[in-house]
Amino acid sequence: MYAFLIAISYIFYLPKTYKYQDNHYHLKKGDFFLISPNDNDPIYQADAEFPWEYIWLGFEGSKTEEVLSELGYNGENKVGHVLNQNLINQHIEELITTNFLSQSSSLTIQGKLITILSLLSLDGTNISLNSNMSTQQKHIEQFCLYIRQNYWRKDLSVQKIADDLGLNSSYLSRIISKKFGESTSEYLIKYRMLKAKFLIENSDHKISLISKAVGYENPLSFSRAYKKVFGHSPRNGKNK
What is the pLDDT of residues 186-209, one digit of tens each? Predict the structure, then answer.
């Protein structure tokens, strides 16, 4: 069994800073962080003059790590940003006003929690493989899930992704391009840069460390990719 706590911006803001091991994050409205039972003395601190308001969600179960992995979070990546603040606030309101004495409350709570968790993915999409999907749609979602779970690997290539998924690389490129309007490699780069952008804007990590965290051994190659996606260098993003 695994138990996690999630702090989510609810009405106003989250704590101003969050520290885990040697990693410092500077959080703002709409950000969240996860704490696991194995974390050693995580530190979070609100602003003394303007304390921020947030909500904790605790959950456990044999599939907890699997769910978090699907959303793109792992032991080295426990912070993120809520893309649809109004929607997640609505679901939180519904959750805390649930009749806990009702016979169906257990299923209701689980359903609402899963909905909330699905909104915590970095790219805002909810991957849910089911039997009603077409084969092509399943392959697309398998690809998206694979990227979330492996974007940090330095050995990733279009061919490797296709091989690991058991798909023809040309077929995979075609269905991804049709779905997202970009190639498989462009999708991977964009996802990596979104991860990097969050770390640049919300942590004190060096650019060289961030580049390695998103799969780039060479900081120069990382900087070029970042500038191509966002129009400015990572160091300019640090100063914003």
Answer: 999 999 998 899 888 878 888 999
